[in-house]
Design a protein that fits this description.
Elements: H1 2-75, H2 82-97, H3 109-132, H4 137-140, H5 143-178, H6 182-189
Length: 228
């Protein structure tokens, strides 16, 4: 009888251990599933940020590619202001000196700030060049210049759109990286928040590069007069 009792206790113990093991394995499976899903989501968001960064780089490169033809065209005008052309050329060269991976979004805010400052200087130089063009009638009717101007306007609009798309992707990624409990997985696998493009005065609109030559500016509306 004693032997049977011992066997019975051992069977119960084995069943109990088996039950505990099943519970442990179930929780391990759930945790593993959570880690797997969260990690894959972070990878997807990270790749989306990199894709949007590549789109930003593409439109900036498109603008840079238009500049040599634009410079050559305006230089053909008689007595065109050399200093303005030199400013654009130097600004374009400065952009090329900012070393940044075109396929991977930066993680260093200072690096993105440097890139943004160089691109902003080029935007300002282009705006000044196009304002100077108003003094040269031969350029206002130059079909090559007008075509380049239209392409530049479209590119500036695309830059604004792609920067906004990039910031949206970064916001989604950063939210996931900081939100509990995904932040623990992000820390384990080296996912760190990405910097945004900083807003600048007038950043809600693309630089004005389409000039309606020959069209007078609209007259200012008279100020309303108060009741006597």
């Amino acid at each position: 009888m004693a032997a049977n009792h011992i066997v019975d206790l051992m069977n119960k113990f084995a069943i109990g251990c088996g039950g505990v093991l099943v519970i442990v394995l179930f929780f391990a499976f759930v945790v593993g599933l959570f880690f797997w899903g969260s990690y894959n989501r972070l990878v997807t968001l990270d790749q989306t940020v990199n894709k949007k960064w590549g789109d930003v780089q593409s439109v900036y490169q498109r603008r840079a590619d238009l500049i040599p033809n634009l410079v050559n065209t305006v230089q053909g005008a008689a007595n065109f202001e050399k200093s303005t052309v030199v400013e654009v050329t130097n600004a374009r060269a400065s952009v090329g000196q900012v070393k940044i991976d075109p396929n991977k979004a930066p993680t260093d805010p200072a690096q993105l700030e440097q890139f943004q400052a160089a691109q902003g200087a080029l935007s300002n130089a282009l705006s000044r060049l196009l304002v100077v063009v108003e003094r040269y009638p031969e350029l206002k009717s130059n079909q090559n210049f007008l075509g380049l101007q239209a392409q530049l306007e479209g590119t500036e609009n695309r830059i604004s759109v792609e920067r906004n798309n990039f910031n949206t992707a970064v916001q989604d990624f950063n939210t996931a990286v900081r939100r509990f409990p995904t932040n623990m997985i992000a820390g384990m696998f080296g996912f760190s928040p990405r910097p945004f493009f900083a807003a600048q005065p007038g950043a809600e609109r693309a630089p004005a590069v389409n000039f309606n030559f020959g069209t007078p500016a609209p007259a200012a509306s008279p100020a309303p007069t108060g009741s006597p």
